[in-house]
Amino acid sequence: MNARQGSTAARLLAAAGASALLAGCASNPFDAAKVDPTSPVAGEVSRLVRANRDYPTFAEIPKKPTDVRPLRLFGQAADEVAAAGAALEQATAPSTWTLSNTDSFAARARSDAGPDAGPADPRSTEAFADDLRRRATPPPPPKR
Fold first, then answer.
1. pTM score over 0.70
2. pLDDT tens sequence across 19-64
3. What does each C-alpha distance from 143 to 26, 49, 136 come to in angstroms?
4. Rounded Cα–Cα distance for residues 88 and 95 (Å)
């Protein structure tokens, strides 16, 4: 009989503890939240937070816009995009085009590009790198 009374007391104690924990969840933790007045957003927070804020009504819902195309036209535009994609795939499918006369194309591209630039002088490249190394300054050590 004592064991039964102990288990009932343990159950009551566990139920009371669970109720106390759940009661903390039922309240709004932001009701008593304070905003640091020195914070850069303190003015904005106090302006946006109002205790008695009115909520929009159904009468405040804007009317349906008249400058939007009907739904069926969206579908037609989607069909046009799909048709253009299919035409592009068909036009660029394998074996629909060949490479020919590539030598003359390459020669024309080379002449349009101008004379070949010679390789850079390794000494000037190394001098440039040395100058950059000399002018480079390491960042300051981190503040601790």
1. no
2. 766 666 666 666 667 778 888 888 887 777 765 677 778 888 888 8
3. 44, 37, 21
4. 14
Number of neighbours of residue 35 by Cβ within 10 angstroms: 13
Residues 41, 48 contacting (CB under 8 angstroms): no
**Residue 46 near residue 35 (C-beta atoms within 8 A):** yes
Reported as a single tens digit per residue, the pLDDT across 40-51 is 888 887 777 765
Query: CA 112 to CA 106: how far, in whole Å?
Result: 10
Say if residues 42 and 35 touch (Cβ distance below 8 Å): yes
Q: Phi/psi at 41 (nearest 5 deg)?
A: -105, 10
Give CA angle at 128 (123, 130), nearest 5°: 95
Read off the amino acid at residue 56.
P
State the Cα–Cα distance between residues 92 and 86, nearest whole angstrom. Answer: 10
